[in-house]
Amino acid sequence: MARTTAPLSDNACRTAKPREREYKLFDGDGLYLLVQANGRKGWRLKYVKPDGRGGLTSFGSYPVVGLADARRKRFEFKQQLANGIDPIQAKHQAKVQAVIDGRTFESVALDWHRMMSAKWVPGHAKTVLSRLKTHVFPLIGERAIVDLDTYDLMQPLEAIKKRGTVDVALRVQNYLQCIMREAKRLRLIGVNPAHDLVGSIKQPRVIHRPALPLSRLPELQERIDNYEGRALTRLTVMLSLHVFVRSSELRFARWSEFDLQRAVWEIPDTRPALEGVAFSTRGTKMAGDIHVVPLSPQALALLEQIQAITGEFDLVFAGDNNPRKPMSENTVNSALRKMGYDTKQEICGHGFRSMACSALIESGLWSETAIELQMSHKERNNVRAAYIHKAQFLEERRMIMNWWSRYLDVNRQEHVSPHEFANRLGENVTRLKVKRAVSE
Predict the structure, then answer these.
(1) One domain for residues 147 and 225
(2) Is the domain of 385 the same as that of 404?
(3) pTM for the structure as a whole
(4) Which of 1, 212, 251, 376 is the most exposed place for a label (fewest CB within 10 A)?
(5) 246 catalytic per annotation
(6) CA-CA distances (angstroms) from residue 438 to 313, 375, 378, 431, 435?
(7) Is residue 285 annotated as a catalytic residue, yes or no?
(8) How far is it, in rounded angstroms, from Cα 291 to Cα 288?
(9) 1 in a domain, yes or no?
(10) Active-site pick, 234, 246, 271, 291
(11) Do 187 and 223 have their domain in common?
(12) Which among 291, 350, 397, 436 is annotated as catalytic?
């Protein structure tokens, strides 16, 4: 009877001490941890080649490559053997072929980018390419893709992390994983070294944008009303509170997007570019969709006042010095600071979204689906998203926007809670709750 090898544990690998001579800790199926006399530890795999000869390969040093990673590498290695492929020989052949074909990392990455650009909006495609050219190509772009290992792929990520832009590092890490996955599909590499990038960058702690408690709505609206700066700025801040869209959705708005007769604002996913204005093509974050914003009577009244100021221009929120360019991205927050608010601790323009969402949920009147659609949040469940996209829930969303504007009005003199307001005005709560249950 063949002897059975007990699998290794993480603790056994971690606590293995060096001896006078190197020794092996076996995990089974050819995989073992080699503990050298100098204390170094490394993974080895004994295997049988497709031609029947014995072979030996290394999977990297421990603990850089952990037990779970070594087992995954063993599984991938054995899969190729089962298909009659010697992974070591395949890697050598791929390396030779890559040199012959000139398949550098940059050439593969550019092919991947061209392929993906057909699915992306132009702005996103431009951003991805810019990041690759800035952060990745200078370090590894000219290297043969088959030569690259996990350590090589880590170099651009480490450089980005040192600059303090962890979010960009995470996005670039995703690009590297996708590019190397495509290289494996094309059989340019035998093993994907980007697998081991997972976990190398810690996701930064999410810091939510500051928002005032709803109890301070009377104070906020009074300060906006008494703002002594530019009239367009005051109207913009108040409109932003009523429609609670994202900053770029607001700033780059064109009058052509508004139908004041139907009381609707339709924000496209991509807008015509403005010469000399960065990111001016940005629309809604819901790629491929139009975000519909029903306009309450209060929002329409504000837009009519804004139209008297900028109606002759294409841009709704035109800049003071050049009407062909939008107002600064800091305009709303700057105005809030002049009103006496700390935009890092108390309230910022984006915080209006949190306040509106909080009130809508606390009222108990509206379906979660309708609220999420009006907040322009993308549904993660693809099957459910297909049905929601068709439904749109526009009738309920118009009621939501009208309710929110009325709620702001009633909170001008004194604070009223969303739940209290929902019942004080005799809202037909039962009917709306039935509607919500049906829609969900």
Answers:
(1) no
(2) yes
(3) 0.58
(4) 1
(5) yes
(6) 44, 20, 21, 11, 5
(7) yes
(8) 10
(9) no
(10) 246
(11) no
(12) 350
Number of domains in the chain: 3
Contacts of 417 (CB under 8 A, 6+ apart): 214, 362
* CATH number of the domain residue 252 falls in: 1.10.443.10
Q: Among 169, 197, 225, identify where a domain stops.
A: 197
| 258 and 378 housed in the same domain | yes
For residue 3, tell me if it sits in a domain. Answer: no
- In sequence order, the 6+-apart residues with CB closer than 8 A to the CB of 143 are 104, 105, 152
Residues 99, 71, single domain; the answer is: no
| Annotated catalytic residue 389 | no
Of the residues 24, 262, 377, 431, which is catalytic? 377
Residue 8 CA neighbour count, 13 Å, CB half: 25
pLDDT digits (tens, 9 = 90+) for 39-74: 999 999 999 998 889 999 998 889 888 999 999 999
pLDDT tens for each residue of 331-344: 999 999 999 999 88
Indicate whether 298 and 420 sit together in one domain: yes
Do 73 and 100 lie in a common domain? Answer: no
Catalytic residue among 353, 398, 435, 436: 353
* Catalytic residue status for 350: yes
**CB contact at 8 A, 353 and 372:** no
387 is catalytic: yes
Single residue among 197, 231, 263 that ends a domain in this structure: 197
Strand partners, 264: 259, 294
Provide the pLDDT for residue 439. 45
Q: How far is CA 181 from CA 14, 109, 291, 434, in A?
A: 31, 11, 34, 48
Domain that holds residue 125: 93-197
Indicate if the pLDDT at residue 88 is higher than 50: yes
The answer to whether the CB of 218 falls within 8 A of the CB of 95 is no
Average of per-residue pLDDT across 2-14: 81
Q: What is the pLDDT of residues 172-225, one digit of tens each?
A: 999 999 999 999 988 888 888 988 888 777 766 555 678 899 999 999 999 999
Q: Which helix (H) or strand (E) holds 81?
A: helix 67-82
